[in-house]
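INFO  loader      accepted 1 record
INFO  loader      residues=416
INFO  predictor   begin
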Amino acid sequence: MKRSKQYAKYALLLLLIPISIVLFFMDQVGLVKLYRQNHTEKQDMVYNAVSLYEKQGKEKSTKNLQLYARSAALMDADNGRILYQKNGTKRVPMASTTKIMTCLVVLENANLDDVVLISANAAKQPKVKLNVIAGEKYYVKDLLYALMLESCNDVAVALAEHVGKSVEGFAELMNQKAQELQCYNTHFVTPNGLDSKEHYSTAEDLCKMGAYAIKNETFVAITNTSSHQFSEISKGRSCAVHNKDAFLSMYAGAMGIKTGFTGNAGYCFVGAVKKEDRRLTSAVLASGWPPNKSYKWADTTMLMNYGCDAYRQETVFSCSVQPPMLRVHSGKNKSVAVTFEPYEDEMLVNGEETQKVVSVTPQYIDAPAKKGMEVGKVYYFLNDDAYKISPIYTQEDVFALDLLYIWKGVVRLFLL
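INFO  predictor   done
INFO  writer      dumping tokens
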């Protein structure tokens, strides 16, 4: 009985050898056809979008903030999300709010006890100024207080020349930092913000700079100081500067940051607030011209009130649903399981915002494919804006259904 079974296996093997040869040549022709077919199809590949999670917001209100500013923005300083904007990406002059970046670049490239030698170029800068004199010496720390509290233009140039060796060299450092912070609609020419055609920023970019600045403890300590007294080093001339940021005393939790004014820019202000579980930054540009000096405070108060009243800290994108199985062409199995790493975040949201999680994958993939191969994307939407994108991966290896696979099956059968 055993011998007859053995003969049957050998007979089956002898039969399969010529069949395999025929299949081999057929397989080569088939592979060419399959390649041509897939090559054509992939030019017009269709993708499937599947909703994995959705939380509908309530109907949007028609209320709009009535701001004096021609450009404005409000940002969640903890994650960089814009909560409100009015011409937020429009490039405009930004006056002395420039000095936020000046201060940051100095803090990151100099020591507070460095000694700055005043040049004739720095001394001749227009008002507002500390009235430094060529040849005088000051500590970097003291000049930073003069820069941020009273917006001294001569001090800005003195610091720029100390750190960048020239105003032009310092502007390069400012622009490099702007790119690092993804302030792509910003370009600096001067460290003091005096009007120049190629010197501009946007409300949204200034919010980004403000959000970065308030992470620096020294920056916050300087901008929250009401007054600072110091002396010139070589001759001992006494100086005192006082903070011109009235917002510090008019809004609970205010953290500064910087005022500005030129004839082209109008009144400007970049502000920051820390209140309960949130940190907000705002920017208002061209918020009136003389004599309407208080418009910038009214605009900033309205923006901050909106951020505190309309938004609440909430867990978003609580999605545990996986994308559907993905169809496989020319595979051992007809489909493969796919997965992605679920993402949740704590952020400020309001009741009008819709949250969606959507998977996007091709209609099929071709075998073979390795476990962990990227085959699609998961998009996390707040309203119509993609807040985050995550990759989708295969959960297992996908083996091709080819001649080699068939022959291995025959061998396994023979060895049983």
